Every structure is written in structure tokens, then in C-alpha cells.
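Crash report, auto-generated. Payload:
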Amino acid sequence: MAATQEEIVAGLADIVNEIAGIPVEDVQLDKSFTDDLDVDSLSMVEVVVAAEERFDVKIPDEDVKNLKTVGDATGYILKHQG
Amino acid sequence: MPKLKPSKGAPYARILGVGGYRPTRVVPNEVILETIDSSDEWIRSRSGIETRHWANDEETVAAMSIEASGKAIADAGISAEQIGGVIVSTVSHFKQTPAVATEIADKLGTNKAAAFDISAGCAGFGYGLTLAKGMIVEGSAEYVLVIGVERLSDLTDLEDRATAFLFGDGAGAVVVGPAPEPGIGPTVWGSEGDKSETIKQTVPWTDYRDGEVDKFPAITQEGQAVFRWAVFEMAKVAQQALDAAGITPDDLDVFIPHQANERIIDSMVKTLKLPEHVTVARDVRTTGNTSAASIPLAMERLLATGEAKSGDTALVIGFGAGLVYAATVVTLP
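Recovered output after restart:
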């Protein structure tokens, strides 16, 4: 069953917490991965791969650069999830 | 039709000795920062690299290879005349004819050993090792020298902030020879030419010769795409190499991945779920990424510092431009 927006944000929060050690409550829709959450370009790849597994979605390399905020990623997953 | 006599080789092969050569000039991040807008902290956090070695005019591909090979031959306890094959993996020897392997074989004092160069980027050591094992088991050589050598400083764009800090120079060599038990497991290797744009030389030499570009060719890469492939796809290949050798991560003593970037190494270790007791090579910190030379250089350092010992079981995996990859399990010399 497809995940809701809330479930995706919560899932991303768990992933960002696991990879970058950021408190889950800091992961909000308007937060930028690099500027606000200390997720650098390489950690972002780890976040993307974990999100792909969790939400059954494919996020190609060329789309990763467009996912600047948690909201961008959530929207992408909502649209593309299997 | 006459019946041909079959060749007769050794039952198995293993690495008998290892040697390395690191150029005398140590280059700290501060030198890199003279040509790019970055910081020591940024370089360390993205790559783990603190220093690398850059070769001087005397430290040629051949000269560094001869130094490393001399140590490997001494470590193996054989003489140069016993070597029947010399395989050199490099992408940074700028005189392609004749193969640099022939000069190395001659200067080392081999007895007209078969000698040739291969091009398999950062997977070159694993490719060479696999060829060497085949030659020994098939019977066309008793001992084979496998050399990974690079002068990547010659192919580095010092104004590219994504790669200027990454590359280093050096040579690593191993002697492979006959063994009563398998000392080199099955190789899991391959190529993905559909991803050839991910890591590449910027332009062909001829474009530079013809004045179509101002900058000498350099190695460039798509960092995120390389990272994803190296960590997640190569972890699968590494697992396949363990399976092919019939062992589990618990059986490993040492993990020697290509020293591309410490972040890739960290993530591979995590993805492979390697147990705590496995020693992980992190030579990249002070050697940088030396492509085909990185695995034998890291192997030599782990043995020299005592972090690994002779007889240990090590997983080695190389991956890079092609894209190409090669993974196998070896017994350390």
C-alpha cells in the first residue's frame, strides 16, 4: 500500500537520523538536506538508496540533484512510489 | 591430426610477496587549496584524505614499478630470473609503445619474461591477479609479477574542486606463484560500458594535440553516481566473491577495497555488515587514490604495520573507470 505524506516524512526522518545523526524532529518538509540537516552530497546518496528500499521507488542519479528539501523528496516519493 | 601435448601448471596459485613504492614528495591538503576554493576540513570530510604522494621527474612509471617489484621479489624469496610473466596495470604511462612492462622485466633481470600492460583502471590489480593465476595454473609461467602503478598527478585537473584533492602517485607489486592449496579464490569481475561516462578522461589526447581544447586531459567523474555504484553495487560483487570462495564475512581477517575515498570504504563496510574483527585498509588517508596501485600499496602497509599478518584471509575488490570491477578472496603473503 502506498505511503502517505506523513509516513514518508517520518520514514525520511528515521533514515536521516540513522545516516547523519540528525534528531528526527528536525526533519521537516521545509528543511534543506545540505543547508539545514548537514546531509552532504555523498550522505544524500545513502539517504536516497535507503528511501528507495523503504518506499519501493526508483530515484535515478539525474533526479537526486533536484531533491533539495525534505518536501522535494517527499513529493517525489509520493508521485513515484510503487 | 596430431595430438597436442597439454601444458602442465601448478595445482593452485597464491600471492608470495608484496612491495610498494611511494614517491618522496608528500603533498598535504594545503597545497591543493592553492588552486581550488575549498578547505582542509571539506576535503577530509568528503574523502578522508590528509596527504598524498606526487612523483618527481625521476619517479617514472617504470622507476616506481622497479622499486616496488624489487621489494615484492625479495619478500617472495625468489630471484628475478624465476619470473615468467610481468603484468603492468596503468592508465598513466604516456608512452604506449612499447609496453612499459618490457622495460621493467628487463631492468629487474628476468630471463625474457612475457611482459605486457593492461588497462582496467582502478580494477587493474584484480584483473592482473586473475591473469597471473591463470598463467600459473595453466603452466605458461611459474612466477608472475603483477604491478599496479600510476602517476595520476599527471592526469589531475588542479582547478577541479571535485577531483583535485583525490589522486596520488605510487606503485604496488605482488609476486604470484604456485601453491599446494588455493591462495586466490574465484574472481568475480565484469564491465558496465553503458556507464562509461561516469569516470573518464576529459578528452582524447588527439583533441589536445589538435588544439581543440586548451587543458591537458584529466580524469573526471560524476561523484554521486560513482558513490552509489561503488558502495551499493560493489557490495553485491564483494558478497559474490565471498560466496564464490565458500566463506562468510566471519571468516575474513582483512578487507582491502580499492582506496578510492574513505567515505566509500565506510559505506561498503556498513553495507557488507563486516564483523568488528575485520581489519579495514584505510591507506587512502595518506596515499590518496592511486587507482591500480591502491590495493597492493594498502596490502603492503597493513603487513608492514602489523595490522595484518601473513596467512590472513583478505577480501580485495577494485572498481573504477569503465566501469569495471574485480573482487576475490586471497591469502596474504
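Post-recovery validation: The first strand of chain B starts at residue 12 and ends at 21.
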